[in-house]
From TrEMBL:
Membrane-spanning parts: 21-42, 289-309, 343-368, 374-394
Protein name: ABC transporter permease
Residues annotated as domain MacB-like periplasmic core: 21-220
GO CC annotations, alphabetized: plasma membrane
InterPro entries per the UniProt record, alphabetical: ABC3_permease_C (IPR003838), MacB_PCD (IPR025857), Macrolide_Exporter_MacB (IPR050250)
Molecular function via GO: transmembrane transporter activity
Keyword hit for Transport: no
Domain ABC3 transporter permease C-terminal: 293-407
Family the UniProt entry places it in: Belongs to the ABC-4 integral membrane protein family.
Membrane association type: Multi-pass membrane protein
C-alpha cells in the first residue's frame, strides 16, 4: 500500500463517513474562520483608516523655520533667531523632491484683515493665505462652489481669491459670490471659488474665515515695514509607510538648500502629521495578537474534538485494520493512512474556514469604512499551515494506536 493508495483509502474512508467528516470539518472551519476573520477585519479596518488619516495629513510632514513657534527667552537666555525660509529656498526644495512627493508651498500674508464688498464688510478677523496649485489638496480643503486657480493666475499673480464660508455669509448672504468683487489689503480681487464649511470642530472655524490667493499674488502684496514672507512647506506622499525614508531625504535636501554647515544643527524643523497613524499601528498590532490568540484557542478546542473523533474511528475500524495487517500492511502504512485522513479532514475544513473568514473579516471592515475587498494571503497561508499541523497533532495518537493493534485480536473484534 503506497502513499497514493493511502490517500485514496483515506478519501474513501471520509466518503463512507460523510456526516462525521462534515461535523469534524465544521469544527476546524469555525476555528480557522475566527482566526482568518479577525485578522482580515483588522487589516481591512487599518487599510480603511489609513486612507482616512491620509486625507487628514497622516502621510505628510511640514517644514518651517526653526524656533518659529517659540516665544521669548528660555532659561533666562535669548534663543537663537534663524533666518526665514525664502521663496527661492522653498521653490528649490519643491523642484528637487517633486518626483517623490507632492510639495505644497504657502505663506501667511496677513491676519486680522477686513474684507469688503460693495455694500458690507467683515470683522477684522480674516486670515489671508497665499498658496500654490497643491495647497487645497495638501490641506484637505474642498470647494463648495467655483473653481481653483488656473495655471495663468498662479504664474502671473492674478487678483483672484477663494473665500471661506463665513465670508460668504457676511458679504453675500443671498447671492452667489462667484464672480463678485471683494477688497482687502488695498487691492480688489475677483472671487473664483468658495470653500466647504468646516464648522467649529478641530479649529475648522478659522478656515471658514480665510481668504486664499495665488502664491505669486501674495508675494506682490505690500507688507507693513517690508516684512519678509516666511514660507511653509508641506510634503505629502502616497504611502504612509514610506514617510520616514522621504523625511530623511527631505532633511538632506533642505540642509543643502539652507546651506547648513556640516556638523551644525538644522536651521529648520520637520513636524510629522502621523501621530494618529502611529497609534493606529500600535493598536492594530495588539488586535492582531489578540485575534491570533482567540483563533488559536478555538483551533485547540477543534483539535481535541478531531482527536476524539479519530479515536472513535479507530475503534470502529478495528476489524478493518486487522484485515489490512493480515494482507501485509505494515504499521507505518496503517499510521500513514490515519494521518492522511486526519490532515485531509482538516484541510477541507480549513478551506471552508478561510473562505468564511475572508467574507466575515471584510464584512466587519466594511462597517467601519470603505477600504475595499482584501484577501490576506499571509493569513490564508498561515491558516492552512495550522490546519496541517492540527491534523498531524490530532491524528498522531489515534494513528499510533491503530498501528500497534495486534492483527489476530483485531480480527476477533466485534
Amino acid at each position: 500500500m503506497n502513499f497514493i493508495e493511502n490517500i485514496r483509502e483515506g478519501l474513501r474512508a471520509i466518503q463512507s463517513n460523510l456526516l462525521r467528516t462534515i461535523l469534524t470539518g465544521l469544527i476546524i472551519s469555525i476555528g480557522i474562520m475566527s482566526l482568518v476573520g479577525i485578522l482580515t477585519a483588522v487589516d481591512g479596518i487599518k487599510h480603511s483608516l489609513d486612507q482616512t488619516f491620509s486625507s487628514l495629513g497622516a502621510n505628510a510632514f511640514d517644514i518651517e523655520r526653526k524656533g518659529m513657534n517659540n516665544r521669548g527667552n528660555q532659561g533666562g537666555r535669548a534663543q537663537k533667531v534663524y533666518p526665514e525660509i525664502t521663496y527661492e529656498q522653498a521653490t528649490q526644495y519643491k523642484e528637487l523632491l517633486s518626483d517623490k512627493a507632492t510639495v505644497s508651498l504657502s505663506a501667511y500674508v496677513s491676519g486680522a484683515t477686513v474684507v469688503k464688498s460693495e455694500t458690507d464688510k467683515t470683522n477684522p478677523n480674516i486670515n489671508v493665505i497665499a498658496g500654490d496649485e497643491n495647497y487645497l489638496q495638501s490641506q484637505s480643503l474642498n470647494l463648495a462652489q467655483g473653481r481653483g486657480f488656473s495655471n495663468y493666475e498662479l504664474e502671473f499673480g492674478a487678483n483672484v481669491a477663494i473665500i471661506g464660508s463665513e465670508i460668504k455669509k457676511n458679504l453675500f448672504p443671498k447671492t452667489n459670490p462667484i464672480g463678485e468683487g471683494i477688497t482687502f489689503l488695498g487691492r480688489r480681487f475677483k472671487v473664483v471659488g468658495m470653500l466647504e464649511e468646516k464648522g467649529s470642530s478641530m479649529g475648522g472655524n478659522a478656515g471658514d474665515r480665510t481668504v486664499i490667493v495665488p502664491l505669486e499674488t501674495g508675494r506682490q502684496i505690500p507688507r507693513t515695514g517690508n516684512a519678509i514672507l516666511n514660507y511653509d512647506i508641506k510634503t505629502s506622499i502616497p504611502r504612509p509607510d514610506e514617510l520616514d525614508y522621504v523625511m530623511g531625504e527631505a532633511t538632506g535636501i533642505m540642509r543643502s538648500v539652507r546651506q547648513d554647515a556640516l556638523g551644525k544643527e538644522e536651521s529648520f524643523e520637520i513636524r510629522r502629521s502621523d501621530s494618529l497613524l502611529e497609534s493606529l499601528n500600535e493598536i492594530s498590532g495588539y488586535l492582531k495578537i489578540g485575534g491570533f490568540v482567540i483563533g488559536f484557542i478555538t483551533l485547540l478546542g477543534a483539535s481535541v474534538g478531531l482527536m476524539n473523533i479519530m479515536m472513535v474511528s479507530v475503534n470502529e475500524r478495528t476489524r478493518e485494520i486487522g484485515v489490512r495487517k493480515a494482507l501485509g500492511a505494515t504499521a507505518y502504512q496503517i499510521r500513514q493512512q490515519f494521518l492522511i485522513e486526519s490532515i485531509v479532514i482538516c484541510l477541507l475544513g480549513g478551506f471552508v474556514g478561510v473562505m468564511l473568514g475572508i467574507l466575515m473579516g471584510n464584512g466587519i471592515a466594511a462597517l467601519i469604512g470603505d477600504g475595499g475587498f482584501i484577501v490576506p494571503w499571509l493569513w490564508v497561508i498561515v491558516g492552512l499551515t495550522i490546519c496541517v499541523v492540527v491534523g498531524v497533532i490530532s491524528g498522531s495518537y489515534p494513528a499510533y494506536k491503530a498501528s500497534k493493534l495486534d492483527p489476530i485480536e483485531a480480527l476477533r473484534y466485534e
